[in-house]
Amino acid sequence: MRDNFVLKIILFLLGKNNSMALNLKTLGTRSISAVFFVIILVSCIWYSYVTFLLLAFLVSLLALNEYYQLANKLNASPYKWVGFIFGSVIFFYFVVINFLKGFPFINWDNISILFYLLLLFPFILMMLALFSDSPKSLLNVMHTLIGVLYTVLPFGLLISIPWVDKEAVSYNYFKVLGIIFLIWSNDTLAYLGGSVLGKNKLYERISPGKTWEGTIIGAVGTVGVGFLLNYNHTYANEWIWPCIALLVAVLGTIGDLVESMLKRMAGVKDSGQIMPGHGGALDRFDSLIFVTPFVYVFLKIVSV
Question: Where are the alpha helices (DSSP H) in the chain?
């Protein structure tokens, strides 16, 4: 019994999907993939704001592509290239307002055109629907728009989080790594708690493995980790990290359920195959995608 529990823990730490049969080849693939994932993610965020931007942009487009693939399986045909173009414009807009605004040679009157292009996005999609022969043109418009908002916008907000604080004068990587660490803590503690004490299913139709007991244990433990993050002195207010931790515990779980719902509706196991043995970008960043907008709004409110 104890050996089976330890094995479950090992499999969980290597990825969220633990249903596959254990064999050395699979375990090795997942282990190597997980190590590379953590190294690349942490290194890019830690090294510089530029490497963080490049990683966030790449992941956002990969996630957008995976969403459009899921939409195809839901009998929709999103206007992919329009979505990619406007997704790139949205991301670059956040880059400009967060990173390039300190450059004196930039003409901000010209940069403002990016914002106006974003306002045109829904209307361009409606024009495409007008001249489309597809009987599901409005469905295609909806999935094109939702895809950009669901995958690209959160990463635009994520790269903005280090600059939300009015007193921020330089890039503080811990403001991002702290959120990611809280997500990992919540996933791990919820799984361990559910494995030991879990009896009541949280949402069996969408995610049979999640339990109320595990979710509550994960939330309580994650808030505790939030208090520990105060030792980094990232924020002057000692309640900011615990509040972020609570948002992560609740909304990270919801984000995981939302992505599971999309995959179940599309009839697929993984959103993609970017990481061998672990799935795609949506599989790896589903919680972060859902958490980020709420954390950003929270930090904007408390910084006023």
Answer: 2-13, 24-47, 49-73, 80-98, 108-111, 113-130, 137-158, 174-197, 212-228, 240-266, 281-302
